[in-house]
Amino acid sequence: MGDLARCALLGGQFPRYSMILGALLLVTQGLVVAPGTPISTITMAVDRARDGDTVWVHSGLYREHHIVIDRQLTVLGPSDGSGEAIIDGEGEPILIVRATGVTIQGLTLRNVATSFVDDRAAILLDRAHDCRIIGNTLQDTFFGVYGAKTIGCEIAENTIRGSKRSQTKSGNAIHLWDCRQVAVHDNVVSGHRDGIYLEFARHAVVEHNHSFANHRYGLHFMFSDSSAYTNNHFQANGAGVAVMYGRDVLMVGNRFEHNWGSAAYGVLLKEITDSRIEDNVFDQNTIGLVAEGSNRLQVHDNIFRRNGWAIKVMANATDARFTGNTFLGNSFDVISNGRRTPSVFDRNYWDAYRGYDLDRDGVGDVPFRPVRFFAMLVAQRAPATILLRSFFADLLDIAERVFPILTPETLVDVHPLMQRPSS
Question: Is the pLDDT of residue 342 over 90?
């Protein structure tokens, strides 16, 4: 009687052996890769595998690249704590997926060099459908995960760390182009040009990611519609997050923090239409939120705290509505580049408000003008910032309260809240 038959007999007689039997049967359905064995490389296993097989990669160092997966396979690294399955690309692209239903999980991929000719990636998804890239570690790669014309793929729980020192030598950690119904969640990405980049995407969900210390943007989103970005943490990136040229975008529950620099912001909304920005925290950014050329924005229930400028709403942003937001400790709350900005502020809480509430309905009886005259001077003459806490700036604020004719007429909160909205 063979070993597998004995195990089957034991599994029938003794239930406690059923788990061992299941594991052995599962392994027999695929191929095992390990150094010093007949299948010593991942390339050998992929070439021998049949559609639907599993490739089990034991711990070890594999110096391989241009591994093409063109059939439905599951490639798994060790999950028993025995070590890492490390694939070193030696400067070249590593895994190229051109199939439906591929899963890559538990691998460590590293060493993909910068190229100014092609988009080298640790994992390239080339027209792949229903793929899963789960729980991998990518180190020192040009692009981390690069998806082109993919549909229904999931990229989750990966750690992607770039090491290039400049934007020009870095690719994006997660790059998706012309993709549909993709889910990017619970990843930790840093040290790349953009942490997460989407272009011409539809119905994308980006949630619970931590994108920090990237050279340009934590998230860069262009020409994409009907997508949601929820509960992400974007921190200390070069210029924060840019959402550009799209419609029906939902941004909820995100944190935008510590994006400092002469051209830095938490979020730039450029040419965005019919979108909602709700329940986000903008903390310690040069500018919290910039709205430029955008239409029908709903900016509700966000917290703007300790920013240089909380909101910069340009005159070409039309029908934007800011309600229920909280402004705390910002150097300047609102700035615009025109006197007749067609946007509305209503029922927000401003820590700089000095009005009163005689009827005790929770709403100030005196309108609040969030655009300070001194803020307009600073926007035109940056060196004037040195006078921010001076007696001169205080005099300008007093004069503006007495004669409110210098700041934009439309940017007035007629119903300022006396207390912070409950979070």
Answer: no
How far, in Å, CA of 297 to CA of 311, rounded?
13
Taking Cα atoms as reference points, which of 156, 267, 291, 287 lies closest to residue 210?
A: 156
Which residues make Cβ contacts (< 8 Å) with residue 363, sequence separation at least 6?
347, 357, 415, 416, 417, 418
CATH code reported for the domain at 35-238: 2.160.20.10
User: What values do phi and psi take at 287, rounded to 5?
Assistant: -130, 130
Question: Taking the domains of the chain in order of start, what are their residue ranges?
Answer: 1-33, 35-238, 265-371+408-423, 374-406
User: How many angstroms from the chain centroid is the CA of residue 184?
Assistant: 9
pTM metric for this prediction? 0.86
Cα dihedral: 6, 11, 17, 20 (round 10): 70
The pLDDT of residue 223: 94
Q: Are 176 and 204 in contact (CB under 8 A)?
A: yes
**Residue 37: count of CB within 10 angstroms of its CB:** 10
Q: Model confidence over 304-320: pLDDT tens digits?
A: 999 989 999 988 999 99
Token pair, residue 354, equals 């000095």
For the chain, how big is the Rg over CA atoms in Å? Answer: 27
